[in-house]
Amino acid sequence: MSAELDMQQYLDLFLQEAEEQLETLEQETLKLEDDPSDERLAVIFRAAHTLKGSSRAMGFARFAELTHEMENVLDKLRLHQLTLSTPIADALFGCQDVLRQMAASIADGKGDSVECSALVKALQGFAEGSPGLMVVSSPAPSPAGPVDTAIPEALWPTLREAATQSPILHARFTLQPDCVMKFVRALMAINIVQTSGEVLATAPDSEKLEEEAFDRTFEIVFQSTESAESLRALFGQVSEVEAFEVKSWEEPKAAALETPALTVEVPDEAAGPGEGSLPASAEGAKAGGPTRKADSGQTVRVDVSRLDNLMNLVGELVIDRTRIAQLGAELAAKYGEMEVDALTETVGHIARITSDLQDQIMKARMMPIETVFNRFPRVVRDLAQKLGKDVKLEVSGGETELDRSVIEVIGDPLLHILRNSVDHGLELPDDREKAGKPRTGRVVLSARHQENHIVIEIVDDGKGIDADRIRRKAVESGLVTSEQAARLTDKEALQFIFASGLSTAAEVTEVSGRGVGMDIVRSNIQKLGGIIDLDTTLGVGTRFSLRLPLTLAIIRGLLVKMGRQIYVLPLGSVVETLLVRRAQIQTVNQREVIVIRDVTTPLVRLGSAFGSRGQEGHEDEYVVVVGIAEQRVGLVVDGLIGEQEVVIKSLSRFCGEAPGVSGATILGDGNVALIVDVNGVVPAGRR
Q1: Is the domain of 361 the same as that of 377?
Q2: CATH of the domain at 71
Q3: For 491-536, how does the pLDDT look when each residue is reduced to its tens digit (9 = 90+)?
Q4: In 25, 76, 501, 645, which residue has its Cα 20 to 30 A from 341's Cα atom?
Q5: Is the pTM of this model over 0.70?
Q6: Which residues participate in catalysis according to the annotation?
């Protein structure tokens, strides 16, 4: 038994090292095309050599064979016996994709059972310098992990977020060929789920299920308090079902760009570097792991769940600290300062220790955003090749740190915006030349800290977004009337690119053009408590700005009073607070507004947003001005209590949808206060 445990330990170490070395291979190979220096080739060669040695020691023959052939090619490159060309770079990237597939297969207990003979032959051809043209094709290895699913890809981010709250199950049913009431059988399965949980998604959707517009197979993704075994017993009672399976939901590991085959061209030596062919995959590097292996004597690997548990405990400690401080203040007010000096001193010490502990735990959860950024250069490179464009991606600010809970969610929205910038934003080289621009398009991805937030920007020097075209598309899609569209400013019209179903693409491609994606991007950013803003100039380029909180666990908030209820406004959304006379509030188009420094600001009464009554009869009104992108909205409240650090507690899914509420917190007196989601409270029409 101990020998088996030791082997598992060695396997874990091998997989960890493989991940780190593959990350190094990918990042350095991307830089190699622009800077084929001897130092960089030496780094890549050492990474391949390390992978070969460790895989041989573990007995993974195919893994070792492929890395050995990579090592041969890299050795000839660093000895200047070969000249780097796009086909060679494509082949190296293809090897890295296959090695990742092998690592995933090994992690699943299936060994390195991924076909790689075509790549091995291609590498041997490069190393031998064979004259002429050799084309090697092999099917791209299928992604390791769960089976294919018909659940739309647009729903995967939502399911991933729901999985962070409680486990998700995935049921697939196949009805008997002679089943005459398919919808009834599907409805019976759905009802079984709904008695103990919640349906998150179905495939096909509910409308097609009701119309029986499907063959014999349907799927349900759901959360339930029942065990999988109990559900299997209940599903087994549904008649006319030929087969079914219930298992945990896992997001399919689809490639960012799928290509059916790997094609490696080996041109005649006299021809020089040739044009690149399609890469095996453009998924790129995984978002985890640094580019260099850390010193093992200075770091300890800690399971993420332990950090989460520590964070929860610190959150409870912060609540108790606030409670003790409040009790101390009440005692001091009742008995006088002298009698409670010792208590006050102890409370102050506990507050300092708790703050330091909280700060250290927060730092332990922080990760550099380069763990996300590192996967994008490969994606952009492969997408540019596929679209026939020359693109240079510039990345800065990768050392900027933010909470791992934000890191896990931000990758997909950033990837979608980048793909849109390359596909929609940047012109083809000939078109750029006609417009007086360099043939190579430029995309800049940057991150920086700003106060208690992180700001991520994606800027391209493409053709920009035509606001008039957006207006026409919005009218065609039925989102607004022609009269309403004509009254919109360019800034307001551009917001329609975040509307579901609206696309400006001239044709549908496998990259984009179906009108899905940007609405999911915005909803994911807003669920994080962030803001996404868009700025574009026709013919010059486009800038997407994302403003995100550093953490989703503890925030600073402004406590406000509305009637007898206390609400928390995230301090990152608060611009300023005002005390205004009721006479200063004016009405425009039956909506309340106030003029602040010659700027008309719409007002929203927080009590009306949550269906509660505020205090009446006062001549003065408290207004909290909040920012939504570049817009300002005033929230009218009964009173201001003050700033406080609050621990965010998620609302149970059994509470249902709560528009305008992002969570709750426990105050020092034990009462519960709702945390306001500013984007949800302020209707788009009031902004």
Answers
A1: no
A2: 1.20.120.160
A3: 878 888 887 666 655 544 444 543 446 777 877 787 777 788 888 9
A4: 645
A5: no
A6: 49, 71, 420
